[in-house]
Amino acid sequence: MALIREPLPWHAGIWRQLIAMDERGRMPHALLFSGPHGLGKQQLADALVARTLCANPGLTACGECHSCSMLAAGYHPDLIRVAPEENKRQIRIDAIREVNRAVSQTAQQGGYRVIVISPAEAMNVAAANALLKSLEEPGEKTLFILLADVPSRVLPTIRSRCQHWSLAKVPFDVCEQWLSEALGQEEDAYFWWRVSGGLPQLAVTLATPEERALRHRIHDAFEQLVRGAEPVSEAARLDRQAIDAILWYGIGWLEDLIRFGLSGNREALHNPDLEPLYRQAVKNARVQDWFKLLDYAREQRRLLSMGTNPNPQLILEAWLVRWSALLRS
Ligand SMILES: [Zn+2]
């Protein structure tokens, strides 16, 4: 396992601010890093974990001390990572009780104790309430790092006890070099940056053969809908396991459609290759109808993320039926 010492290049500015706070002895005891999936929050957190636990930190963790070696080997007694159990969506109170127990004792290596909770919005109410006490009275040399894709879903009482860093989408010129290297020279970095909506790590994922094939299948299904295909049979051809990705793409396309319908601006499109589809679609339906469908899709995606909606196949069908009605109206 490699030791993560540095944040991604577009987080260099935040990193400098964090280090400056630490050097002035002003590091808060709880940080919340928020921003959409694919921005590199985890790498920022990992670099900070390493530097905080390091015995000889400079601008980054030294990479050579005992603490750094333990982290590189994959285990550090003063680091607790809290995440949902396998195949579960929620972080439950038992996991937080263990955090509270550990925080009430001194660090084994005599330095900091670091607790990383990710995704923080996965804590159920009982877990979040159990965490409050530790956040209020964390004790000496304790650092909580919470990561959240959607910070509004973190309990306000938790949010207000953390110093909140909202990480922004990354302009192309800031991540161009990194993205070109990550994708390989033969790939169109600008295209994948646009498709990802300014999320460089996500752009790399979307350009993998499997994700590319999924995007192609969804695109094809929508073209069939425009041509009058039955939405239920198109839904059956799509992989319902990929429902979240399918909704994510659909949401991006709707946002594109709305932009295109309102301004006709092609440069602002996230999916420039779908312009013919958009042209067809804006002819057929009104912008407020696209807004309604967008709300519907966001809500379905939210319900899915909470694990409360059990039938992806039905969501997929209902979703395509609505699209099809607009595409053909
Ligand atoms: Zn070190």
TrEMBL record:
Provide the GO MF annotations for this entry: DNA-directed DNA polymerase activity
Q: Could you list this entry's UniProt keywords, alphabetically sorted.
A: DNA replication, DNA-directed DNA polymerase, Nucleotidyltransferase, Transferase
Against InterPro entries, the record matches this protein to: DNA_pol_HolB, DNA_pol_III_delta_C, DNA_Rep/Repair_Clamp_Loader, P-loop_NTPase
Q: Does the keyword Phosphoprotein apply?
A: no
Q: Which Pfam families match?
A: DNA_pol3_delta2, DNApol3-delta_C
Q: Which reaction does it catalyse?
A: DNA(n) + a 2'-deoxyribonucleoside 5'-triphosphate = DNA(n+1) + diphosphate
Enzyme Commission numbers on file: 2.7.7.7
| Every DNA polymerase III delta subunit C-terminal domain range | 214-324
Classification via PANTHER family: DNA POLYMERASE III SUBUNIT DELTA (PTHR11669:SF8), REPLICATION FACTOR C / DNA POLYMERASE III GAMMA-TAU SUBUNIT (PTHR11669)
Q: What is this protein called?
A: DNA polymerase III subunit delta'
